[in-house]
Amino acid sequence: xxxxxxxxxxxxxxxxxxxxxxxxxxxxxxxxxxxxxxxxxxxxxxxxxxxxxxxxxxxxxxxxxxxxxxxxxxxxxxxxxxxxxxxxxxxxxxxxxxxxxxxxxxxxxxxxxxxxxxxxxxxxxxxxxxxxxxxxxxxxxxxxxxxxxxxxxxxxxxxxxxxxxxxxxxxxxxxxxxxxxxxxxxxxxxxxxxxxxxxxxxxxxxxxxxxxxxxxxxxxxxxxxxxxxxxxxxxxxxxxxxxxxxxxxxxxxxxxxxxxxxxxxxxxxxxxxxxxxxxxxxxxxxxxxxxxxxxxxxxxxxxxxxxxxxxxxxxxxxxxxxxxxxxxxxxxxxxxxxxxxxxxxxx
Length: 347
Prior knowledge:
This protein is of the alpha/beta class. The chain has helices at about 30-40, 60-75, 100-105, 115-125, 135-140, 145-155, 215-220, 250-260, 285-305; strands at about 15-20, 45-50, 75-80, 110, 130, 160-165, 170, 190, 195-200, 205-210, 235-240, 270-275, 310-315, 330, 335, 340-345. The chain has two domains: about 15-160, Rossmann fold, CATH 3.40.50.10740; about 165-345, Glucose Oxidase, domain 1 (3-Layer(bba) Sandwich).
């Protein structure tokens, strides 16, 4: 396949679109959203621009698609950033004007349900950026995490290689966004433990593809946006799971289906995000969180053994639903150096 093209980057002082292509949660949880907008303005020097559906719950797929079109078509808008994810962005995809978007490529930042739009942009030949949503990363309680901030700043403003590093700490226990006290301090962090490597005997460099595993499973079921296996030959797969905490068995089944479709073996390297292991519905203790992560890791290894035994994998990379979070270029170049234990992305 032809490698996707990196859109021009914004610079401080530029206008950026803030959209809700999935859920209009800024309407009911304004505290992290307004904090994120303030940080984009004060710390990044950007000028956020909201659209009709940005702060509205229950907007139709057509309305959300119209905002995407307006943001991409406006020459004054230099990047597009998602407010947050959701669970129905797949319904927006059929309403997108591919020619309009292809003619006006711009950096798009988001993750989780935004895997839908990132996959769509990949198919249009446009590099996107998996990570850095307004409410979750820019609106983080207390302060923007330095690891997240450095990665987001590099993804937004710079071009070229960026080496990921292993943070010493992380957190995945949330506090209620409706309470002002939540935003007065940072959440307690815990030791991160570093990355875990599987089959690190070689160096793999390729175009990245992937995102949230549950969303990819939905796209596979709907037969929407997933190309023939040959299109992914030599690509670097990256995956992460959400706050819905899919079990190891669920993870295995999605990967098994990818294997049966002939997809999994096309990827010589896999970056697996640090699994989120706590939610308000399932407030797991430390032992339960460790068991959840171990179960997911075992499931991935089981699927690789069955369908892609030569694939190199790195576990607990800080991408997706974790804090801190690094931004992964979606369709950009990723180099996974097994012998040196290094991961370098190209923004």
